[in-house]
Amino acid sequence: MHDIPQYQSFSKIEPINKGWSTDKKYYIETVNGEKLLLRISDITELEKKKAEYNAVCSVAKLGIPMSIPVDFGICDDGRSVYMLLSWIDGKDAEEVLPTLSPKEQYVLGLKVGQLLKKIHSIPAPQTQEDWESRFNRKINSKIEAYNKCGIKIEKDQKILNYIEQNRYLLKNRPQTFHHGDFHVGNMIVSATGELSVIDFNRLDYGDPWEEFNRIVWCVDCSRYFASGRINGYFEGKPPIEFFKLLALYISSNTLSSIYWAIPFGQDDIDVMIRQAQGILEYYDGMKNPIPSWYLEDM
Asked: What is the mean pLDDT of each run of 10 residues along the chain (298 residues)?
């Protein structure tokens, strides 16, 4: 870190050992009492990280409560890339939500849905490949990898059938900026109850409705929050087309979560298998696209 311009002002440097990112992360305090988040990546990721930093700057301009970008550059004698962002004080949303009343959970979900809608106001580049071709290719890859991985979800044919019967929904879908990993694990709630979004390192562009594909993690924590997130985004109950597409995106993600978990061990595999069984239950064996946990209002 010695060649980071602000390095001499760092009075405290603490490693952060949580999350799935390959970035090295540090909590920083400066001599002036400023709190920062430092992310360090290998120099081979320079262009990717530069694009990420520029995209995060664009999101920050929308007034989204988030880690605000501070600086970006090369460090470690040219071997690494660094990104400095403001630090968000608070607790993980998945820790806070269970301590709130159902109504408070729902209202926080409404606010998150409104934030996501604002994030999706950033359009995808004109050069972006059409969504139908891109996502169908992704589905094919996921099915192939799932079939080869050796671990199977009970009644997986119901999921596979739903995917094949609903690919047509991908046609002519719009594309926007994506946070890329939008769920309770990447949200912080302050002591005053304000929610902020963190970790844009998986940002992408695609169908804005696909951004709900990780809502299963929100559901595991709070159906009230998950329902609020949907209703806040749509300013009321969404159209049936949303639910049909969401079931398609969740189905696709469910398959890939199984082989994704294998390198992390049996505990993570078990979590994904349990989640897959839960998905089959709340979609009634993939017969009802509106999940049983969804609440139209509170």
From this structure: 90 85 89 94 94 92 94 94 94 94 96 96 93 97 95 94 97 96 93 91 94 93 96 96 97 94 92 94 96 92
Residues 6+ apart with CB under 8 A from 127: none
Is the Cβ–Cβ distance between 155 and 255 less than 8 Å? no
pLDDT tens-digit readout, 185-237: 999 999 888 999 998 988 999 999 999 999 999 999 999 999 999 999 999 99
Residue type, 293: W
Q: For all residues of the chain together, what is the average pLDDT?
A: 94
Three-state SS letters, the chain: CCCCCCHHHEEEEEEECCCCCCCEEEEEEECCCCEEEEEEEEHHHHHHHHHHHHHHHHHHCCCCCECCEEEEEEECCCCEEEEEEECCCCEEHHHHHHHCCHHHHHHHHHHHHHHHHHHCCCECCCCCCCHHHHHHHHHHHHHHHHHHHCCCCCCHHHHHHHHHHCHHHHCCCCCEEECCCCCHHHEEECCCCCEEECCCCCCEEECHHHHHCCHHHHHHHCHHHHHHHHHHHHCCCCCHHHHHHHHHHHHHHHHHHHHHHHHHCHHHHHHHHHHHHHHHHHCCCCCCCCCCCCCCCC
- Rounded to the nearest 5°, which phi and psi values hold at 68? -80, 130
Among 180, 177, 161, 3, residue whose Cα is nearest residue 76: 3
